[in-house]
Automatic annotation (TrEMBL):
CDD domains: Ubl_MoaD_like (cd17040). It comes from Phenylobacterium terrae. It comes from the Bacteria. InterPro entries: Beta-grasp_dom_sf, Mopterin_synth/thiamin_S_b, Sulfur_Carrier/Prot_Modifier, ThiS/MoaD-like. It holds the Pfam family ThiS. This is MoaD/ThiS family protein. SUPFAM superfamilies: MoaD/ThiS.
Amino acid sequence: MARIAFTRHLEAVGPCDPVEYAGATVGELIQAVAADYPRLKGYVLDEHGRVRKHIAIFVDGALRPRQSALSLPVGETSEVYVFQALSGG
């Protein structure tokens, strides 16, 4: 199973340490985690089910575009990290 983790900034809504969940895509992984962490879905996804602008998703070490991240396939050894994207200066 793929492993998914959320940055410490999101620890109130999801697991910070990598945990295994079943899913064939990033979107399926997020849905699986959201079943255990109900607040997660509303924080990571907008009302249309798209990744919110303040969220960055990395799959196997590479930043993926928000617009297509949910449909990306994941394998048994994939690692997905969900970060709160910070801005400012």
